[in-house]
What we know:
Blueprint: H1 3-29, H2 37-42, E1 49-50, H3 51-58, H4 62-74, E2 78-82, E3 90-94, H5 96-117, H6 122-136
Antiparallel strand pairs: 1-3, 2-3
Helix pairs in contact: 1-5, 3-4
Amino acid sequence: MDARANTFGLAITRINKQAQQWYAPVLATWGLAPGMQSYLLALDPEGPTPQKILAKLMGVNPANVSRGLNSLAHKGLVLRRYLPGSLRDYSVELTSQGLLVRKDLEARARGLVEGFSSRLEPKDWVTLVRLLEKVAEM
């Protein structure tokens, strides 16, 4: 394997593992599985998000989003409704309890960002975030 690819893959894997471990206490408090923070942080706290848009934001298959949302709906954290005029497409909205969980996750995220960004100069952090957003769009 190309050394650059191996280094990149290992770095991304380590960052993902650190993030998962960082969110784990909040997820455990609310009885949520690892990775569920992605849904709650991607949803607009101000109102409904079309499920297709959510899948795109998360970079995942819409069928996988549906399974995760079913789990969150079962726990009372999101509400899924058909989009007006459709019997197939949903919008998703955080419930009041979902908003509380999201606030806990956002607070935890601030600590994660502080930990990661403290290792870089401010301008380098801005560059890293911009580049990661580009890479995530692939």
